[in-house]
Amino acid sequence: MAFPLPAHLPRKKDARDVSTQILTKISETSSKALRAEVASSWVAELDDTIQVTKARIHERIAADLPNFERQLATSISVQERMRSLSDNVDTLSESIFDPQSGLIPNLVTTLESHAALAQQNADARARHDALAHLLQCRNELRHLTRLVEEAELAEATRASSSLQKCIKQAPEPLSNSQVMADMQRKSTALRNRTEEQLLDAYSRSIVVSASEVTIRPYVQAVLPRRQMNGVWVRSTLPEDNIDTVIALPDLLASMSPSALSMHLSTLRRDIITHCVEYVLKQPIQIYQAAATRLTGTSEYKLSMQRAPPGTEDLSLRLENLTTVIAFLHSKLFPHLPPAERTSFPLSLCAPIRTAVLNQLLLPNVPSTLAQLPDFLRVAQQAATLEDEVVVKMLGDNGADARIKTWVDNVGLHYERKRRAEILDRARAIAVSPPDDSSTFHVDVPLVVENVPFPINVVDRPVANGKPAEPVAVEGNDDSWGFADESPSQGDDTPSQSDTSTDEWGFDDDIEQEPAPEPVPEPPKAPEPEPSGGTEDSTEDDPWGWNGDIEPTEVDDGSAWDDAWDEKPSAPEPVPPSPAPKPAKGLAKRLGAKSVPSSPAPPQSPTVPIHHPTPQPRSQPVVTKAKNPPPPPPPPPPPPAPVLIPATETYVVSGRTKELLRLVEDVLREGAELVSSGILGSTPGSVIMQAAPMALELFRALVPVANTAVLKQSVKEPMRFSNDCFYVSQELKRIVAGLSGPKAGARDKLEEGRERLRVLSDSWFEQTIVREEKLIDELLDNANGFIDTTHQERYDECETAVNEVLQRIRRVAPQWKAVLPKSRYYDALGSLVEAALSRILTDILALEDITEVESHRLSELCHILNALESLFVEDPEQPSFVVSHVPSWLKFSYLSELLEASIADISYLFEEGALVDFEIEELVKLLKALFADTPLRTNTINKLQHGHPVRGS
């Protein structure tokens, strides 16, 4: 196929030769135009062209004749050489490939003859080698058979190994033959018979069990000569059996290496189990005996029997172990093969050390100090056993010496075991479930100094135009009935209460808040009764009851007028002071009732009263009277202080007593260990560490082990807080009494005491926070108290507030049952404060309150007024809710403000009754309650000037 020229190359002009041109002309001429003349012209043209071509060739040759002649001569020479080479090739091919005389046929014939001869030679050699090896195997088999029949077990074992080696080395053609298979079966049968007899003899020469150890240096073997169904069986006829005596060394040497290793491993296991661990676990009695059997063979027996009860002595176990190892060392080890005579005893060293530690020393570490001296003697005996038995008898190099190392630190091991036992006991205490039957009450001793003092109250009018009734906030509210009775207060009786130091851990001043309206009583003469007093600080003061206050003097006058009574009276006539005129709306709502002004209280020297909860604002407390009258004559001196014992009680779980008893026992045990001097220098430190560790276990495990109870119950978290606090206070007493060796645990116990105190406060606060969160979730259903004009929304809000009320009422008795009075009112006050603060925030956040909504919101606020009964201990005395709920007055005024007029709100603001509200809150409340009028604008401008500052 011609190579196609690329299209981009220049094309040469079509140079057709003459013949092509003539042929073209012939093909293009039609049959009608074809004539003789035309054909003659084509022939003539072709002849002319031939003549021209010849002429050109002759000219070309003539132009370069020498070169032409040279090339011609070369061509002739090449032709001759080619002819000669072809002749020689034909001759050579005939001499090589000729069937009769050719080289290749003769060579192939010779090679085929040589290969056949070599194969015959190889077959002969293979047959000869196979027959020679087979002859050797036959001779080995005959030799083995003879040895087995003659009961030469040792030689038979070696012959069996030689025969097996010979069979394995058989040539490949022979190894696959039937004769070798038969020989292999016979060899296996003879080997199994030999091993069976050796195993039987070995089982009777060395016997190790839990009751005895028997060593027979020579053992008699009875070998059968007859076979039955291919199995060698013993016969009752003596001539059918072979009796032979085999020495124990020969017996062991006769075994194959694999069988010997297996038997020695089993023997080592039996010795460790029956001769070492069995002897160390229990008391036994050992007897040695040597006897000669009727056959003339001797045997050595070591019998082991359980010792009778009451013979428990750990030192005897070590002596028994020494006896057993000495027996094996003298009666068994010398008969072992040379290769095992050293390695086998060494393999027993580590198990013996481990058994002495794990079976004797560690399980019998004493639990009491009285048992420790006897155990120390046993430990020293164990160290001696390691030196005499393990090192000297068994040949150990002593580099391990685990027993001696353990004995050198036996005191540390004793203390660690005791610590583990103590911590196990502490763990059992910590994980025990709560048990109400084991709880007990703890009385906190208090000493209150009875000093009379006046009650500081605030005169705050309410929205209906009547000033609030004086409310006395007692410093020591005795809800459990442990303190003296407080004097009842009549309408005209000067307010008196017990002066208290920071008895419940409160040390901030608060304002007195108005109580619910009491039933009006006729005026009575003032009869002040001194009560209350200060308390002395004690060492076990759990709540910081160690503050002292100065005694106060009796106030002759009432700090408040009875704003709820229509006929207020004063203890003595005082000049009336000008008072702002009540708003018309208030007077109209009161009807014919008059709104009296509040006379200023008589001035008398007083001291600040420390109340539980600080006020969240800094506005001064003002009274209604602007121009107080001159002070009355000074009152008579107070009576002499009288010390009144008082207590408060809280509930503690019974497991705390067990924990504290455990801590005291641990410290006492550590001190006894140090004073005994048994363990040398610096003992007792590890045991004493168990005391703070027990506290850590209690602190860590109780919340984990009682997670479900602590999450579901309201009372249990508070009781756990009491438990931590009680243990902390008792630890203070324990730490104070530490001396001598016990003083080393002082820092850790102090640290544990502080952590328990923090944990107590943490659980107390977390429980309150959890309940506050639940109350917040309940109030979420009120949806911000919006759209209460719709009955459905009002029902939802009412349901939410009632659920909050019921929740607090359910929680209160459970907390009161376990908490001390001070903490109970703190927790309950925080809970009520959370509810009131949330409702205050939601209502004050409303931007528009219609008249209907204001009435309904006021009704919703009045629902929680029932919580005030939780802060009343004596029905004849007013509640002290304002001392524990800072937002109580603010919340109470909110329900009044929701239904008050602008004039009422202005009047209350001028009287200083709304100091609990921020100015922004009052402004926002006015904008939400009332339409935009000039009166509202003027009132807002008045409010924005700030709360009025009243003179005292």
TrEMBL record:
Biased composition (Pro residues): 515-529, 570-581, 598-617, 627-642
Domain ZW10 C-terminal helical: 800-943
Compositionally biased spans, kind Acidic residues: 500-514, 550-564
Superkingdom, natural source: Eukaryota
Bias (Low complexity) ranges: 486-499
Signal peptide extent: none
Pfam families: ZW10_C2
InterPro entries: Zw10/DSL1_C_sf, ZW10_C_2
One GO biological process term: endoplasmic reticulum to Golgi vesicle-mediated transport
Cellular component per GO, a single term: RZZ complex
Region ranges (Disordered): 462-642
Protein name per the record: ZW10 C-terminal helical domain-containing protein
